[in-house]
Design brief:
Keywords: Membrane, Transmembrane, Transmembrane helix. It is built from two helices and two strands. With 75 residues, it is mainly alpha-helical. The protein has one domain. The protein has a two-stranded antiparallel ribbon. β1 and β2 form a beta hairpin.
């Protein structure tokens, strides 16, 4: 049985700074990180999505649908 423990701030920072967790330098992908919205590489630039989290796909689909609906019905 796998026990999930909350990662420490140091562990989160190590994940954030590890270039192996960034696809093409801009997409965060870390299956060990339970966060859906971790901060970007440069934290002042906001947040990104952890694409290894299964919920991230759902969030991105909803976001795209909201934008498309707004564009289609804004006229």
């Amino acid at each position: 049985m796998k026990f999930s423990k909350e990662p420490s701030e140091e562990e989160k920072n190590n994940w954030q700074n590890d270039p192996n967790n960034w696809v093409w330098g801009m997409f965060y992908y870390n299956p060990e990180d339970p966060r859906l919205f971790p901060p970007k590489k440069i934290k002042e630039f906001g947040w990104t999505t952890n694409f290894a989290n299964p919920n991230s796909v759902l969030v991105m689909i909803i976001l795209i649908l909201v934008v498309l609906i707004f564009i289609l019905f804004a006229h």
